[in-house]
Amino acid sequence: MKKEGNSNSVQEFKGLRSIIWPVHNFELKKFVPMGLMMLCILFIYTLVRDLKDTLMVSHATGGGAETLGFLKLYGVTPSAVLFMILFVKLANIFEREKLFYMIITFFLTFFVTFGFVLYPLRDVLHLSQETIYSLQESVPRLYWVWPVIGNWSYALFYILSELWGSVVLTALFWQFANEITKVTEAKRFYSLFGFIGNFGLLASGSVIILCANLAKNSSELAASDTFGSNLRYQMGAVVVFGAILLWLYRWMNRKVLTDPKLYTPGEGTKKKNKVKMGLKESAKMIFTSPYLLMIAVLMLGYGISINLIECVWKGQIKMQYPDSNDYNALMGKLSLTTGCITILVMLVGANILRKFSWRTAALITPVFLLLTSVVFFGVVMYENTNGLESNILGCSVLLAAVIVGLVQNAFTKGVKYSLFDSTMQMAYIPLDQEQKIKGQAAVGILAGRGGKSGGAFIQSTLLVAAGGGVSLSSMVDILGSIVFIVVILWIAAVCGLSKKFEALTTAEKEKTTSKE
C-alpha cells in the first residue's frame, strides 16, 4: 500500500482508514508524542479551569458567580495582553526550546506554590471576612469587586489558569506544531491532535471527581480542611502531567527533530504572515466588508451568549452545592461529559460537514444554544417566582436548573469544538489572500476579544448599576432577553453568510472549470 521510510513517496490513504487513522507507521514516532502533548495541556487546563471557578464562586469569602464578570474584564483581558507582549519580547531573546521550558516551569511553579503555600496561608494573606463584608456595605456599587480584591491569591490563580489555555496551547503548542509539521502531515494530523487532546477532558474530569470525593470522605481531615486537601491532590496531578509534557517536548527535540525522515528545517507549515492591526484598523476593515462583519457576529454571538448563561448557571450550582468539594466535583462531571460529547461529535462532525451544507452545520450550535437557553432561563424564572422549595418534573426546581445547565453547557461546548470552529475557519476559504490574512486578523482582534469580554462587560455593568448583593439569577429576564437577541442575530448572520459563502464558492468552481 505504501513505501514507509520516505515521506515524499508514501501513498495517500483511501476509504475508512483515511478518516479514522490517516497516519503511517513511520510517522507514529512524531505523531504520538504531539498528540500526548496536547492531551497533557488540555488535562491541566481543564483541571485548573474548574478549580478557579470553584475558588471564586464557592470558596472565596463574599464571592459568587457575580465576581467572574469583573475578573474576566478587568483581570484576564489586560493580563492576556501584557503576557503576550512579554511573550513576544522573550521570543526575541531566547530560542524556542528554552522559552518553552521557561513558560511551562513558570506556570507549574505558580500552581504548586498556590496549592502548598498561598492557599494554606490564605487567612494571613487575604482580607478578613469582616473587612470584606464591611467594604461591601460601605461601597455597595462595588459589592462584587471587593471579594476579588480581598481574595487576591484566588483571583491570581483564576487569571493564570485562563492564561494557560491562550499562552501554552495557542502560543507554544500550535506554533511548535506549525514549525515542525509539513502541510501534507497537517491535513492528516491536526484534527486527530484535537481528538486525542479531548481525552484530556475525560482524564481531568475523572481526577477532579476522584480528588473531591477522596478529600471529602477522608476521616483524618478536619471538615474545614477537606477542600485544601482536594486542592493539593489536584496540584499534584498538575505537576505529574506537567512533567510528562516537558519530557515529551524534550524527547521531540532530541529524537524527532534530529530524524531527517520526520523533520527537515524550513519544511514546516508556512503560517500566514502575521498582520499587526490596531483596533481602529480592524474595525474599519470589518465594517467595510459585510462578509467579515457576519463572521465577526458569529464569534461575538458565541462568546457573549455562553458567558452570560454560564455565570447564571454557576450561581445555581453554588446554591445547590454550597460545599466547595461538591461544587468542584460537579465541575469535574461537566468536563467529563463535555469530553465524551466532543469526542462523539468529532466522529460524526466530518460527516455532517461532508453530507450537509455549510449553513446546516453552522446553524447547529446557535439553534441548540437558543432552544436550551429558553428551557434554562425558564426554569430559573420559575424558581424566582415560586421559590427554591418548589418542584418541577419530580425534582426541586434548583436541581432542575443545575441539570439543564449542565446538559446545555456540555453539548454546546462539544458542538462548538467540533462544528462551530470548523465552519468558522471554512468561511475564510473563498476570500482572496489579502482578505484571508487581514480579515482573519481583524476578526480575531475585535470579535475574539469582544466575545470574551462582551458578556463580562454586560454582567459587570448591570451589577454595578443595581448595586448591593444583587445576584445574576435575579436578572434572568434581562440576561435572557439579551441572550435571545444575540443568538437571533447570530442565526441571521449564519443565514446571510451562507448565501455569500455559496456564491463565492460557486464562482471559484466556475473559474477553475473555465481554466481547465
Question: What does this protein look like?
Answer:
With 516 residues, the chain is an all-alpha fold. The protein has 2 domains: 18-271, Growth Hormone, Chain: A, CATH 1.20.1250; 275-509, MFS general substrate transporter like domains (Growth Hormone, Chain: A). The chain is 78% helix and 1% strand. It contains 18 helices and 2 strands. The chain has helices at residues 16-20, 28-59, 67-93, 96-118, 122-125, 129-138, 146-150, 152-180, 183-197, 199-217, 226-256, 279-287, 290-320, 324-355, 358-386, 397-426, 433-466, 476-515, and strands at residues 391-392, 395-396. A two-stranded antiparallel sheet has the order 1-2. Strand 1 and strand 2 form a beta hairpin. Helix 10 runs antiparallel to helix 11 and helix 15 (358-386) packs antiparallel against helix 18. The longest helix is centred in the C-terminal third of the chain and has 40 residues, at 476-515. Residues 1-10 have low confidence and may be disordered.
- Name the shape in a single word: globular
How does the helix and strand content classify structurally?
mainly alpha
Strand content: under 5%
CATH topology of the largest domain: Growth Hormone, Chain: A
Helix fraction, binned, reads over 70%
C-alpha end-to-end distance: 31 Å
